[in-house]
Amino acid sequence: MSTPVVPTLSEITLAEPRGFCAGVDRAIEIVERALQKFGAPIYVRHEIVHNTYVVNDLKQKGAIFIEELDDVPPGATLVFSAHGVSRAVQDEARARGFSIFDATCPLVTKVHVEVAKLAKEGFEFIMIGHKGHPEVEGTMGQLDSGIHLVEDVADVARVQPAQTDKLAVVTQTTLSVDDAAEIAEAVRQRFPKVREPKQQDICYATQNRQDAVKVLSPQVDIVIVVGSPTSSNSNRLRELAQKLGTESHMVDNADELQAGWFEGKSRVGLTAGASAPEVLVNQVIERIRAYGAVSVRKMNGIEETLKFPLPKGLRIEPQA
Question: Could you give the C-alpha distances from 191 to 74, 160, 185, 187, 298, in angstroms and in order?
Answer without folding.
Answer: 48, 11, 10, 6, 44
